[in-house]
Structure formats: structure tokens, C-alpha cells
Design a protein that fits this description.
single chain; 433 residues; alpha/beta; 8-stranded parallel beta barrel; 3-stranded antiparallel sheet; 14 helices; 11 strands; 12% strand; globular
């Protein structure tokens, strides 16, 4: 049955309404659309305006059909803005058009990527303006995308989840392309090169505090409904390349059984501390994470799923099951970007596994859906069938922990490949509404 969220309403559900491959190089979130992706593959209101207005806003964002989310990706200008260098008015119009699209497609929430590469889509005191806006990192776009998104989403009855990437600094390795006052240039020891990019070293306590401060600035300043993270913790492994954290491990790794256990503890601390700080700052704001869809394989761990794929616990050092069972997060959106019957990671086997994980925790479960794979000729035959996602939604209804689905990503929501999303919406219409 639906689970009550921090605002005192069911995230995406009206109160009282009972709801009945081979590993690739990176997560499917954001840029990858190949079969290799099967590896995952206005200003906000001030505190003084809360109370009645907040309750009214929450009521306006209830939905009888359950949670239905849409990711809006900004890295590489994938979903927004369409290109760099647009005027402030043009960018604002594009953002509003994407929110209007979400309403037309029956979405209840948008997960807006506002910090993809240690940068920001709001005037942050911690990190520079994002390159995707003006084409120049640190370039002032002349408006406040996050503040506008919050106000305009709520005006349309949509939840606005601020989507951040904790550790990624850059998708390339040239530090000179970062603005001179970027934290990774002011503190060069904070960032390391790996996998063709730069990322913060999760083993440094000062890094952990900085990324928390940077992300929580959005929570503090805006009336966001949630802080949302995707699947990038420690980077996806590169064959034959070790993540270069020897120095931080020597300084802080004493007392751990091995480096992997130390790394998992680093990520655990980031998650648990962020959770506690959100509760202290704004208890009504939810904390959600969208991890890689496989925690561990049963062949490695009896608690794992009947899969033979990469695993977040081993590859990203992200103990996603623990975060749910400890109730450090309010919702989880595993990226189940596989079809029913996939030999290595079967969607039909992963749904009951995740349903069991959230059972009796109060953590809401939404299923991440690979809309971007539908109709792609590079994908298996199942993705050439517009009914594949319909089958996903129907399967989700069989499990009480499943509260909805989230679709990657906006570009595909607009295109509706093979009419698959239209079919989902027709099949998933509110019952008895």
C-alpha cells in the first residue's frame, strides 16, 4: 500500500487512496544509450512562507495514479537546455516547456539535474555556474533555473526533486578547463583522474563535507520536494585501472578489513550524514537515491538477487540495500534498465527482490525504467515491442512495495518511441478516479 512521505502526504498518491547483459562503461543515466548501458545501464519560498501555503502546495501535488517521474538531464545538454548560449528567456521557455510536457504525459514529479559536475544550476556559494547553460563554466546565465523550476513545477502540481551527482567533477581530465576558483583547483588534492574524467576522492573527510554543503545549499534555499542522487558513487570500474586513492587510504584506512570495506564506509558516511542533515534542516524534504539496479548477485552473496551482472556493492562500493534497511533514505529508484527475461538481469526477478528489501522499512520503492531503449535498433527484440514497459507496470502492481515508476529521460518522454509511453499511460490510468 502507499507509504506516507515526510510532508505528511503520500508521494504521488492522495491520502487514503489505496493502490492496489554485459557490463558497459558507465551508467545509463545521462548520456549512454547503447546496449553497453545494461551495466545500469523564480526563487524558492522562504522559511517564513511555510505552513498553510506548504500544505496547500503538497495537496496540489497529490496524484491518484501513484508516483510517475521523469528525469531531466543537463549534463552534455542532453535534455536541457537544448544547447549552450541560449538567452535567459529562451532557456526559461525551454524549461517551462519540459514541465508542461511532464504534465501532458501524466507525470507527478520531475527529477531535475541541478549539479552534474561539481557545478550548479542556481547561484551557489560553493561551486560555479554549470557549463551547460552558457557554454562557459562559471558564466552567469542571467536567471535562476532551479528557483524557476521549483516555482513552475509546483504551480503545475508537480514535485521537484533536485538531482545531484555527489562526486563527479568533470567529464574530462584537463583541470585548466575548470574555473580558477573551482574547489578542485583551489584544493587539487581533492580530485583524482579516473576513467577519462575527474572526480572527488570519497576517502577525504573534507571532500565529504564540501559535497554535502554544496548539495544541501539547494535544500536550504529552495522549496524542493527531495534531494535526489543517481548511481555514480565511486566510479564504474575501468578494466585494468585501479582507482587512485592510495594516499587517502594510507591516511584513513586503518582498522578496515580491506580497501573495499573502507570505501563502502566512506559512501555510507556520505549517505547517513546527508540524511541526518536533511532531517535537521527541513524534515519534510525527502532524500532519494537511484542506484544501479543490482545490489549483489546471489552467487556472491545469499542476500543478493538471482542475477549475473555488475553490482553496486562491489563496483561502486555503494551498499544500497543497507541504506534502505537503515532507513537513511526515504525512497529508492533502482535503475532496472533491463527487459523481462534478460539472461543476466531479469526485470521480473529484480522487482520482487527490491520489493522484499523495502518491506517493513517505510522506504518508498519506485522503479527506474529505460524508456530510452524502446525502439532502439541496437537493443534486443524485447525493446522493439511497445508493450514491454506496459508489462513492467503491470508486474509492479503485483508487489505492494512498488509505488510507481520513473522514466529516463525527458527527450524520450517527448518522442514517445513506438507509442510505448502512451500505452503505459492508457494501462496505468487511475482506478476508480
Amino acid at each position: 500500500m502507499p507509504l506516507i512521505g515526510r510532508r505528511g502526504f503520500v508521494a504521488g498518491v492522495a491520502l487514503g487512496a489505496l493502490g492496489t547483459g554485459s557490463a558497459g562503461p558507465a551508467g545509463a543515466h545521462e548520456a549512454t544509450v547503447t546496449e553497453g548501458a545494461d551495466r545500469t545501464e523564480g526563487a524558492g519560498r522562504t522559511e517564513g512562507s511555510r505552513g498553510t501555503k506548504e500544505a496547500e502546495g503538497a495537496a496540489g501535488r497529490r496524484r491518484a495514479a501513484g508516483f510517475r517521474g521523469m528525469w531531466i538531464t543537463t549534463v552534455f545538454n542532453r535534455d536541457f537546455p537544448s544547447r549552450t548560449g541560449l538567452t535567459a528567456a529562451e532557456q526559461r521557455a525551454e524549461l517551462i516547456a519540459r514541465l508542461d510536457l511532464a504534465v501532458r504525459r501524466g507525470m507527478t514529479a520531475v527529477l531535475f539535474q541541478v549539479r552534474s559536475c561539481a557545478d550548479a544550476l542556481w547561484p551557489s556559494p560553493y561551486e560555479p555556474w554549470a557549463r551547460c547553460l552558457t557554454g562557459v563554466q562559471g558564466g552567469d546565465p542571467g536567471w535562476d533555473p532551479l528557483g524557476t523550476a521549483v516555482a513552475e513545477a509546483h504551480a503545475r502540481g508537480l514535485e521537484l526533486h533536485a538531482w545531484c551527482n555527489p562526486y563527479r567533477v568533470s567529464t574530462q581530465t584537463d583541470r585548466n578547463q575548470l574555473v580558477p576558483n573551482h574547489p578542485a583547483r583551489l584544493h587539487p588534492e581533492w580530485a583524482v583522474e579516473y576513467g577519462g574524467g575527474l572526480c572527488y576522492d570519497p576517502g577525504l573527510p573534507e571532500v565529504r563535507r564540501h559535497v554535502q554543503d554544496a548539495m544541501l545549499d539547494a535544500v536550504r534555499r529552495y522549496d524542493v520536494d527531495a534531494l535526489h542522487w543517481d548511481d555514480y558513487f565511486y566510479p564504474y570500474p575501468v578494466a585494468g585501472k585501479a582507482f587512485p586513492d592510495d594516499d587517502s587510504f594510507r591516511r584513513y584506512g586503518a582498522g578496515f578489513a580491506d580497501r573495499a570495506a573502507w570505501r563502502r564506509n566512506n559512501v555510507d558516511l556520505l549517505v547517513s550524514e546527508t540524511s541526518a542533515r536533511i532531517k535537521q534542516l527541513k524534515p519534510h524534504v525527502a532524500f532519494g537515491i537511484s542506484p544501479f539496479g543490482v545490489w549483489r548477485n546471489a552467487s556472491t552473496d545469499p542476500l543478493g538477487s538471482d542475477t549475473r551482472a555488475g553490482a553496486s556493492y562491489d563496483d561502486q562500493h555503494a551498499d544500497t540495500r543497507k541504506w534502505v534497511r537503515k532507513r537513511w533514505i526515504d525512497y529508492v529508484v533502482p535503475q532496472l534498465y533491463w527487459h523481462i527475461g534478460n539472461e543476466r538481469a531479469d526485470y521480473a526477478k529484480l522487482v520482487p527482490w527490491w520489493d522484499a528489501v523495502v518491506r517493513d522499512t517505510g522506504v518508498r520503492l519506485y522503479l527506474g525504467e529505460a524508456l530510452y531503449k524502446v525502439g532502439d535498433p541496437a537493443q534486443p527484440a524485447a525493446w522493439q515491442d511497445p508493450q514491454e514497459l506496459v508489462r513492467h507496470v503491470r508486474l509492479g502492481r503485483e508487489y505492494p512495495g512498488v509505488g510507481g515508476h520513473c522514466y529516463f529521460a525527458t527527450k524520450e518522454v517527448a518522442k514517445d518511441p513506438l507509442g510505448a509511453l502512451t500505452a503505459v499511460l492508457a494501462d496505468d490510468a487511475p482506478r476508480g478516479a
